[in-house]
Amino acid sequence: DGRKPANPAFWWVNDEEQEVKWTFEELGSLSRKAANVLSEACGLQRGDRVIAVLPRVPEWWLLNVACMRAGLVLIPGTSQLTAKDISYRLQASKAKCIITSDTLAPALESVLPGSQFLKSKLIVGQGSRDGWLNLKELL
């Protein structure tokens, strides 16, 4: 019909040439689903704080949009944070949820019992861990 295809809303490529493209419609739908996961499965409410310690994976951007939709405050953290750094951020922010990758979760677990505000733990990736919710499964 002569029309150009729509530009993607999100286009991610990693070093292994893996590629993720989302249209605006897909990003909207996925972010609504992720916002529901945060609100319902994680039990978070508008104004609650969420710490994300993730490498730059597509879910990083998806969760940013989902937090905005749900009215949550996202506190980004690099995967280079130490256990002491994470413990400080958990206590100072009174975060109720922490989100991390399946590869980083074991390193974070040592500091999580000391956080009296933490209600839920969400993992991004294929793996599963006891006590953690899996974002992909919940989406």
TrEMBL record:
Source organism superkingdom: Eukaryota
EC number(s) on file: 6.2.1.2
One term under GO cellular component: mitochondrial matrix
Enzyme class at the top of the EC tree: ligase
MF annotations from Gene Ontology: ATP binding; fatty-acyl-CoA synthase activity; medium-chain fatty acid-CoA ligase activity
Keywords in alphabetical order: ATP-binding, Fatty acid metabolism, Ligase, Lipid metabolism, Nucleotide-binding
Occurrences of domain AMP-dependent synthetase/ligase (ranges): 3-127
Catalytic activity: a medium-chain fatty acid + ATP + CoA = a medium-chain fatty acyl-CoA + AMP + diphosphate
Keyword Zinc listed: no
SUPFAM superfamilies xref list: Acetyl-CoA synthetase-like
GO process terms (BP): acyl-CoA metabolic process; fatty acid biosynthetic process
PANTHER family: ACYL-COENZYME A SYNTHETASE (PTHR43605), ACYL-COENZYME A SYNTHETASE ACSM5, MITOCHONDRIAL (PTHR43605:SF6)
Family, similarity comment: Belongs to the ATP-dependent AMP-binding enzyme family.
Name of this chain's protein: medium-chain acyl-CoA ligase
